[in-house]
Amino acid sequence: MRTTIQFGPQHPVWIEPLRLKLIMDGEIVKDAELEAGYVHKGLEKKFEWDYNKGAYLSERVCAICTQHHSTCFCLAVEGTMNLEIPRRAQIIRTIMLELERLHSHFLAIGLTLESIGFENLFMLCFRNREIVLDVFERTTGNRILHGINIVGGVTRNIGPEMGKEILDFCDEIEKRSRDLEKMIVNSYTIRQRMQGVGIMSEKLAKDLCVVGPVARGSNVPYDVRAAAPYLMYKEVKVTPIIEKDGDCWARSIVRVRELYQSIDLIRQLVPMLEGTPDEIFAKPKSMPEGESFARVEPPRGELFYYVRGQKSIKLDRVKIRTSTYANGPGIIPLIKGSHLADVGLITITFDPCIGCFDR
Amino acid sequence: MESKTVTQAELQGIVNNLRERSARLITIVGVDVGENIEVLYFFNTGVNLTEVYRIIVPKQGGNEEILSITPLIPGAFIAENELSEMFGIKVKDIPGRFFLPPNINSPLRRPVPAAAKEAKQ
């Protein structure tokens, strides 16, 4: 018997509103429609104002990838001015980006585990995430909306004591990540629940141009840190982490492995601060003029900002292409043919951010 | 930022070629520049390589239509829908609604500057 089920817009598996209209044949999803726009804020229009306030606004696009949004916006605006920021500011920005990847991946792994009934592991992930947020609070003064990026550099320095604290934090978080990994990878139940579910083939991933762990879980080695290195990624090399199976398990394992990659990158970046001049800001000498774009690799995948200046303090046009925007089309083919009980799990392994999607 | 201005017919051939070269579509950006709407197609074509193609669509009071690249690159579906709903350009065989409710039309479209209108007349 065919039934229509409205999955969302308010559904416990997602924090934010997104609606899936599922046409069911018994327990199997025969067809699905995706409807977004519930939290559309018209932010691209709002960006047509003072470029100095743009970094502040860009952080509000997404509450998880705040540092990535403001960094990408600043890189795009700096591109319109041919402005090179000081090396120390580049290092600080990159450290913050990797810290953000850590806390976002803990969130994504936790939510994935919660969606299959492991609330205790969700709590454990959030306990680990909490100590990353503590480091953010100590370094930037804020836990989520860090507010340290401005066009031309950053507003907060990282001194030697804080550098040491960050390195100590790396030891602690690595230990905790290993414990967590053991629990997940050695769990027969979790593995059985996730393996073979929601498979995205390599061809489909390439056709849909999906990004981040969704692409890398399907054997597509696309990581902007390697494909178009920016900031300090030009010096600290990143090799994309890939898994071949394309299922929920593969996407989650990519995130687990990327935790160690980020820790390793932070360990390489912090010593670079030593001996680097204390300059963290370069004053822009001109107004944004012409067009420029920037790409960065947030935890969910490639983020893109296009900026068009008009030789005035006001920007003419800003376009944001977020990770979930790129991954959105991949949800429907994966849930078609799946069981209703798997719809939540499949969608959550995309780590969807609806605030980013709608903007 | 370097870009190449092409016609719609040329773009179809270029996208076909890019697809064969395993290029990835990054996104499609619409910009209202007064008399025209410019549509920019961003592709990642390799390490540190991007190609940007621009088509110029003269404004015709909301009757503009462009060809879709979604049949060639399915990943363009959302971007083409958004382009349509934000700028009021019809994209052939694309519904043209994704994020916005039906009562909001072309919020990023600007009026044609008076000087350009006079020049046309």
Helix-strand blueprint:
The complex is a heterodimer of chains A (359) and B (121).
Chain A: E1 2-7, E2 19-25, E3 28-35, H1 43-46, H2 51-59, H3 66-81, H4 87-115, H5 119-140, E4 149-150, E5 153-154, H6 160-185, H7 188-194, H8 202-207, H9 212-216, H10 224-227, H11 248-269, E6 289-296, E7 303-310, E8 315-321, H12 323-327, H13 331-335, H14 340-348, H15 354-358
Antiparallel strand pairs in A: 1-2, 2-3, 4-5, 6-7, 7-8
Helix pairs in contact in A: 2-3, 3-4, 4-5, 4-11, 5-6, 6-11
Chain B: E1 4-5, H1 8-20, E2 24-32, E3 36-46, E4 49-58, E5 65-66, H2 77-87, E6 90-91, H3 114-120
| Overall mean confidence score, pLDDT of chain A | 91
Given helix and strand content, the structural type of chain A is: alpha+beta
Helix content of chain B: 25-40%
The secondary-structure element order of chain B is EHEEEEHEH
| Overall geometric form of chain B | globular
Number of strands of chain A: 8
Note down, in words, how this protein is organized.
The complex is a heterodimer of chains A (359) and B (121). Chain A is an alpha+beta fold and 359 residues long. Chain A has helices at residues 43-46, 51-59, 66-81, 87-115, 119-140, 160-185, 188-194, 202-207, 212-216, 224-227, 248-269, 323-327, 331-335, 340-348, 354-358, and strands spanning 2-7, 19-25, 28-35, 149-150, 153-154, 289-296, 303-310, 315-321. In chain A, α4 packs antiparallel against α5 (119-140) and α5 (119-140) packs antiparallel against α6 (160-185). The model of chain A has no long low-confidence stretch (mean pLDDT 91). With 121 residues, chain B is an alpha/beta fold. Chain B is 26% helix and 30% strand. Chain B is built from 3 helices and 6 strands. In chain B, the strands form 2 sheets. In chain B, strands 1-4-3-2 form a 4-stranded mixed beta sheet. Chain B has a two-stranded parallel sheet with strand order 5-6. In chain B, a hairpin with a 2-residue loop joins β3 and β4 (49-58). Chain B is globular and about 45 Å long. The N and C termini of chain B lie far apart (34 Å). Chain A binds chain B through residues 36-37, 40, 42, 44-45, 79, 206-210, 222, 226-229, 290-293, 295, 302, 304, 306, 308, 316-317, 319, 321, 325-326, 328-329, 358, and chain B through 1, 3, 22, 24-27, 29-32, 40, 42, 44, 47-48, 50, 73-75, 77-79, 86, 98-101, 107-108.
